């Protein structure tokens, strides 16, 4: 258990992929306008890898990368849903899709727009994003 955090569970649409993640009940979600996030409507919050556990479905995940290949966009081979991924900004953590969490553990969601069209500048100028995957 992690002090001050709650255990959220979630997964893909078909249920082949399931995970748990320890995070605040009040989520800080990024709404990125980069090319892939725009196409997928990818909104996510970031956690350290130590607070994420894949419960099932490792064999049902596939990965898409592009450009720098640092971000690893994992999704279910069966239903196509990306419930989590490895973000370029935090390759030592996970970006979790709040809409893939099971009901009952999220109190509030605060959404912050980030200019992924100018990714390097946006991440360089952001005061906390690179530290979000640190325990």
TrEMBL record:
PROSITE patterns for the chain: CENP_V_GFA
Keyword terms, alphabetized: Metal-binding, Zinc
GO molecular function: carbon-sulfur lyase activity; metal ion binding
Domain CENP-V/GFA: 8-120
Segments traversing the membrane: none
Superkingdom, natural source: Eukaryota
Keyword hit for Methyltransferase: no
Entry similarity comment: Belongs to the Gfa family.
Protein name: CENPV protein
Gene that encodes the chain: Cenpv
């Amino acid at each position: 258990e992690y002090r001050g955090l709650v255990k959220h569970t979630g997964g893909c649409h078909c249920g082949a992929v399931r995970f748990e993640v320890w995070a605040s009940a009040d989520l800080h979600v990024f709404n990125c306008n980069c090319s892939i996030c725009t196409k997928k409507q990818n909104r996510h919050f970031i956690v350290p890898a130590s607070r994420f556990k894949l419960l099932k479905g490792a064999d049902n995940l596939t990965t898409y990368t592009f450009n720098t290949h640092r971000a690893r966009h994992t999704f279910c081979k069966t239903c196509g849903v990306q419930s989590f991924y490895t973000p370029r900004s935090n390759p030592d953590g996970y970006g979790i899709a709040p809409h893939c969490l099971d009901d009952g553990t999220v109190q509030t969601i605060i959404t912050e727009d980030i200019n992924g069209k100018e990714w390097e500048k946006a991440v360089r100028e952001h005061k906390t994003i690179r530290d979000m995957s640190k325990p």
